[in-house]
Amino acid sequence: MLKSIYKYQNEAGTDEAGRGCLAGPVTAAAIILPPDFENTLLNDSKQLSEKKREFLKPLLEKEALSFSVRHVFQEEIDTINILNASILAMHKALDGLLNTPSFILVDGNRFKPYPSISHECIIKGDGKFMSIAAASVLAKTYRDEYMARIHEEFPMYNWKKNKGYPTKEHREAIRTYGLTKYHRKSFRQLPEQLSLDI
C-alpha cells in the first residue's frame, strides 16, 4: 500500500521517464496531491499496463492540487548528459507547479537541491509514496504521447511501440536508416558502435 505523505502536507513528488532511451526527451513530472488522496490502482508506472496509466492520468490531473510536466530534449541531453538532464527536467517540472511545495520527494538516489525547498531522495519511491507514483504515471504518459507524435514523422523506428527504448527492432532500424534528429547522439546507439566508425 502506498503512503499518502512522507513528512508534511503539501509535499510534491517528482519522477522522470525515458532515461534509458536512445531517442526523444527525458520527461519529468511534479505533483502535489491532497493529503487525503487515495487510489488503490496507483503504483509505480512500470508496474501498470498502458491502459491503467491512461485511466489514471486524467484522474490524477483532476485530483491534484497542482501538477506540471516538462521535457528536456535530446540536444540538451547530449550537451549536459542524461543524469543532469533528468534532474533539470525535474527542476523544470517543479518550477511549473502553481502551489509552492513544503517538501520534495524525489524518486531515486540522485538530485540537486531545489532552491529554498528541502528534499529527500527515496530509492524505488514510486512504489512507496502516492505523489512519486503519480509523478511517474504523468511523466510516462506524457512522454509516450510525445513519442507517438514523432513516430508519425519516422514510422520506420516504431517509436509508437518501443517509445525510443533500445529494443532489437529499434537498433535494427538504426542500422538500416541511421540516426534521426530525435536520437541522442551521445548515447551508444548500437552494441558494435565502439568498433565501427559511425
Automatic annotation (TrEMBL):
SUPFAM superfamilies: Ribonuclease H-like (SSF53098). Its cofactor is Mg(2+); Mn(2+). InterPro entries: RNase_HII, RNase_HII/HIII, RNase_HII/HIII_dom, RNaseH-like_sf, RNaseH_sf. One of its GO terms (biological process) is mismatch repair. It holds the Pfam family RNase_HII. Keywords: Cytoplasm, Endonuclease, Hydrolase, Manganese, Metal-binding, Nuclease. One of its GO terms (cellular component) is ribonuclease H2 complex. CDD domains: RNase_HII_bacteria_HII_like. It comes from the Bacteria. It is found in: Cytoplasm. One of its GO terms (molecular function) is manganese ion binding. Gene3D superfamilies: Ribonuclease H-like superfamily/Ribonuclease H (3.30.420.10). NCBIfam families: PRK00015.1-3. Endonuclease that specifically degrades the RNA of RNA-DNA hybrids. Belongs to the RNase HII family. This is Ribonuclease HII. It comes from Flagellimonas eckloniae.
